[in-house]
Structures are given as C-alpha cells and as structure tokens.
Specification:
By secondary structure, this protein is of the alpha+beta class.
Length: 72
C-alpha cells in the first residue's frame, strides 16, 4: 500500500524558514500572505498502517513536530 505522511512543526514552535518565505512573498507583491509554515511530505510503501505510522514516527522529532499518515 502507498502512504503519505505530513510532518509539520507544532503551532507554538517558531518556523524560521516559514518566516523567510513569508517576507520574500511580501517583497514580491503578495501582501496578503500572513504566515507560511514549512513542513515535509513523505510518500512511501508499507505493508500496514501500523508500519506506515512507525516509518513516519521514525522521521519525526516529536518534541517539535507532529505527523499525520494517510493511505493514498
């Protein structure tokens, strides 16, 4: 089965890369952009949802990040 994991910073964690992208977008005319958050998406094969969850967990710093896994 194919799975997709979305890994993002928790909302209280400062996202420096996201802030840089926000400022860059504003500087080229996208003044309506308020807050960009940068994350990662992983697409991979796994034999079960449990294995897919374990793979996503192994790629996540759970102190700063959370993950969501969906079957695709």
């Amino acid at each position: 089965m194919m799975y997709r994991a979305k890994i993002m910073l928790h909302t209280g964690i400062l996202d420096n890369a996201g802030m840089a992208v926000t400022l860059a977008l504003k500087s080229i005319g996208f003044s309506e952009v308020e807050n960009v958050r940068i994350g990662r998406t992983l697409d991979y094969n796994a034999d079960s949802l449990e294995e897919a969850e374990n793979i996503a967990k192994s790629q996540t710093n759970e102190v700063m990040e959370y993950y969501e896994v969906k079957e695709t």
